[in-house]
Amino acid sequence: MAKADRTGNRIPRSAFKKRIPDLGRYFIYTDADETEEKYMYGLRDSLPKEFQGRIVIKVSKTKTEKLIEACREQVSLQAQYCEPWIVFDRDEVPNFDKIISDAERCGIHVGWSNPCIEIWFDAYFGTMHAGWLTSPVCCQRFGDIFEKRTGQEYIKSNPQNYNLLTRFGDENAAIQIAEKRLQHYLSNAQTTSSKMCPCTTLHHLVGEILKKTRPSKND
Fold first, then answer.
1. What sign has the CA pseudo-torsion 32, 34, 39, 40?
2. CB atoms < 10 A from the CB of 207, how many?
3. How far is CA 197 from CA 32, 85, 119, 136, 155, in A?
4. Alpha-carbon distance 35 to 155, whole Å?
5. Preceding peptide of 198 cis, ω within 30°
6. Which residues of 45-61 are buried (b: 16+ CB within 10 A; e: fewer)?
7. Phi/psi at 113 (nearest 5 deg)?
8. Per the structure, how many domains does the chain have?
9. What phi and psi values does residue 30 have, to the nearest 5 degrees?
């Protein structure tokens, strides 16, 4: 039932604006200073100015298995509470599954991609190709699609990759595609991340940030 104003007249629903959930602060740690870092900076810089300062992105110069330790150390230095994330690819990382489970036990969220982040980028263009089981194959074949869709060569370190993906692809559809693929594995009792290929959880981080910073078209 619609609320009434002080005169007793009903206030139309259109007069109310949905409150966007508070973004809070995010601390995102990755082991890649090319693709992942440039992509995350692109996402951050696309947000309204008032939110950009709430997302801190750091690159670890240590090995992937040291990400948790490095992330916890950096988070402890933050003056304000923040939500920690580590972002990394399967590639040939040893102890991939253990890193994920250890991070989650420490309260650190994980945005992983298997075999590599390009499988998440692929979703922007409408699918996640099932035959791309290794990073070299995934990067090469995604590069071909990227060039056809954007008219530009795919360069992993290009700081404009995020803008190109959102301009020529569909970010909301990408999130739905990635979630559908993840749920497919889980519904078939496959919970080992290294065996979930192609798959990603990076869409959880992206979707959460977008939901808290951009009003819905239906608002």
1. positive
2. 17
3. 20, 21, 9, 14, 23
4. 9
5. yes
6. ebbeeebeebbbbeebe
7. -135, 135
8. 1
9. -135, 160
Helix, strand or coil, per DSSP, at residue 105:
helix
Q: In angstroms, what CA-CA distances link 77 with 30, 80, 126, 132, 144?
A: 17, 9, 40, 39, 42
Please name the residues in contact with 75: beta carbons below 8 A apart, sequence gap of 6 or more. 27, 82, 84
Domain range holding 139? 21-213
Instruction: Tell me, yes or no, whether 194 lies in a domain.
Output: yes
pLDDT in tens, 74-87: 888 876 788 999 99
- pLDDT band at residue 207 under the 50/70/90 scheme: very high
Number of neighbouring beta carbons within 10 Å of residue 96 = 19
pLDDT over threshold 60, residue 187: yes
Residue 77 in any domain: the answer is yes
Q: How far is CA 116 from the centre of its chain?
A: 13
Q: What's the CA gap between 83 and 27, in Å, rounded? A: 6
Mean pLDDT, rounded, for 20-49: 87
Which uninterrupted H or E stretch holds 113? strand 109-114
215: pLDDT strictly greater than 70 = no
Query: Is position 85 within any domain?
Result: yes
Q: Is residue 12 part of a domain?
A: no
Q: Beta-carbon neighbour count of residue 131 at 10 Å?
A: 8
